[in-house]
Amino acid sequence: MVLTKKILILEDNLLVLSKILANLEILEQDQPYSLSLVILTDYQQVEDYINNNPKAQFDIILLDRDCKLNGSFHNLNFERFDVNRIISISSIPDYNQEARKRGVIVTAKQNVIPVKTGI
């Protein structure tokens, strides 16, 4: 039996996303489970495919805030998902503070993407 961890990534910057994926690939090599990823790049997809989908369940959610469509990934239904599974990764401290007030775990984006990667 294969153990799987389901991760939702809400990030619209493709360069950042590529670095996250590269790091997850390395992480997966050292784990007894495989990673199953759902990646959404605009806030409208969150409403359409996550908030309104009763089958959507995740072990970890990586949450950026800004979206190029002038919306916010903070439209995620925080009450539906355990806030202890949500990690805010915005590069803007005020947005991380906004998420923290809602009970979300916060880390700087550079902690998800090591500085040596060039971002």
What do you see in this structure?
The protein is an alpha/beta fold. 32% of the residues lie in helices and 24% in strands. The N and C termini lie far apart (37 Å). The protein has one domain (3-117): Response regulator (Rossmann fold, 3-Layer(aba) Sandwich). The chain contains four helices and seven strands, in the order E-H-E-H-E-E-E-E-H-E-H. A five-stranded parallel beta sheet has the order 2-1-3-6-7, sandwiched between helices. The chain has a two-stranded antiparallel ribbon with strand order 4-5.
Q: What fraction of residues sit in β-strands?
A: 15-25%
- Low-confidence stretches are 115-119
DSSP summary, beta strand count: 7
| Assigned CATH superfamily | Response regulator
Helices and strands, in order, run as EHEHEEEEHEH
What is the multimeric organization of the chains shown? single chain
Radius of gyration: 14 Å
Q: What structural class should be given to the helix and strand makeup? A: alpha/beta
Q: Summarize model confidence as the mean pLDDT.
A: 85
Do you know the CATH topology?
Rossmann fold
Major pleated sheet: 5 strands, parallel
Which of globular, elongated, flat, extended, rod-shaped describes the shape?
Answer: globular
- Head-to-tail CA distance between termini: 37 Å
The first-level CATH class name: Alpha Beta
Give the strand order of the largest sheet, numbering strands 1, 2, ... along the chain.
2-1-3-6-7
Q: How many domains? A: 1
What share of the residues lie within helices? 25-40%
Q: How does CATH name the architecture?
A: 3-Layer(aba) Sandwich
Number of distinct helices: 4
Protein name: Response regulatory domain-containing protein
